[in-house]
Specification:
This is N-acetylgalactosamine-N, N'-diacetylbacillosaminyl -diphospho-undecaprenol 4-alpha-N-acetylgalactosaminyltransferase. It comes from Winogradskyella damuponensis. InterPro entries: Glyco_trans_1, Glyco_trans_4-like_N. The chain is elongated, with a radius of gyration of 21 Å. The protein has 13 helices and 13 strands. By secondary structure, it is α/β, with parallel strands linked by helices.
């Protein structure tokens, strides 16, 4: 056992509600080497909203509705706990921590970005207010910025003037390893599934257009909630495929659902690092996805765990493809790159190096 003092790290999130940033940060905070690190997870929001088990790390809930109102408590926590490192995730939280950084000279501030900001900023109707409006200078005081994909890193360098030396690409980890599914017998009805928020950027509407042109029987399961729900199902009715669709607003058994389907369909216009897509490959269900900006193309290997396509016509052709997939090969393709030991080591190396330097 090392005699070196443990590195104190404070992880900060707005809430522990279901989401990619919340899943990854809660996972990292609980699973980094406790012989080297002393983690504290600070949640601006409320314990009642927690969607993740965080029993393996010390947690402080500030019981505030948003980061802005939680800032005084966060400042107090940093003063009292004196962490060597503060890790935040999600753009507006990173911006807030960048603002605090000059006041805590002995603390290193690391942000983790969750999307390709320049692309998300240009999407219509995504959200009425976006932290994108605070940039390009919103991250300037951070000591390091973690990006989930190469596209995201290049976006931050090119469009937001973040120095290349400050950027670290760390993909999301496979945090849960369910049993890989068995090879399913071919049936006359193809079973498709999509998991994600019902928002414009996720591309549900263009997936419906494609499915309406499919000249073979199919069923389509959509898991997720969002403000585009009514528009999605009105369009499904107009296209005559409403009866083919099952909607599951929320479930704790996402992996079970994915395993029961033949293909995972992703219609996104942009992604940070798509967790649901990765989870699909982990259980052995292959994916069809557009070549969108973000981490999708770092996950998909054509013909191995799915298909990447350029346009809707090519997407339709791949839906008709009769390829037989080996679930074990689908899983192996992502496990070798994104298993938790590989990703946690990258986080630990970053934390140790930034304190040394």
């Amino acid at each position: 056992m090392s005699n070196q003092p443990k590195i104190k790290i404070m992880f900060i999130l707005p809430s522990l509600s279901a989401g990619g940033a919340e899943r990854v940060i809660s996972f990292v905070s609980q699973n980094i080497d406790k012989e080297k690190f002393q983690p504290l997870l600070v949640i601006a929001g409320f314990k009642k909203d927690a969607a993740y088990d965080v029993s393996n790390v010390e947690v402080t809930y500030l019981n505030k509705p948003r980061i802005l109102t939680a800032l005084p408590s966060i400042i107090s926590s940093i003063k009292n706990r004196k962490p060597q490192i503060v890790v935040s995730s999600i753009s507006h939280v990173n911006t807030a921590m960048s603002m605090l950084s000059p006041f805590f000279k002995k603390t290193k501030f690391i942000g983790r970005e969750a999307t390709v900001l320049s692309k998300r900023g240009n999407e219509k109707k995504i959200r009425q207010w976006s932290p994108f409006r605070l940039l390009p200078n919103g991250f300037k005081n951070l000591d390091a910025l973690i990006c989930q994909s190469q596209d995201m890193a290049e976006d931050m360098i090119t469009n937001f003037n973040i120095p290349k030396k400050s950027i670290y690409v760390i993909n999301n980890p496979i945090s849960n390893l369910p049993e890989v599914k068995q090879t399913q017998p071919t049936t006359k009805i193809k079973k498709f599934i999509t998991v994600g928020r019902l928002t414009e950027v996720k591309g549900h509407l263009r997936l419906l257009d494609i499915l309406s042109k499919l000249d073979q029987p199919f069923s389509y399961t959509i898991i997720g909630k969002g403000n585009l729900k009514d528009e999605i199902f009105e369009k499904a009715k107009a296209l005559g495929i409403y009866d083919n669709i099952e909607h599951v607003p929320f479930t704790n058994k996402v992996n079970d659902y994915i395993a029961e389907h033949d293909l995972f369909l992703q219609g996104s216009y942009v992604e940070g690092f798509p967790n649901a897509l990765l989870e699909s490959c982990v259980v052995g269900t292959p994916v069809i996805a557009f070549k969108a900006p973000g981490g999708t193309k770092e996950i998909i290997e054509n013909g191995i765990n799915g298909f990447l396509v350029e346009n809707e016509e090519e997407y339709l052709q791949k839906l008709k493809d009769s390829k037989t997939w080996n679930p074990k090969d689908v899983r192996a393709s992502v496990y070798k790159k994104f298993n938790k030991d590989v990703i946690l080591q990258q986080y630990e190396d970053l934390f140790e190096n930034i304190v040394k330097n």
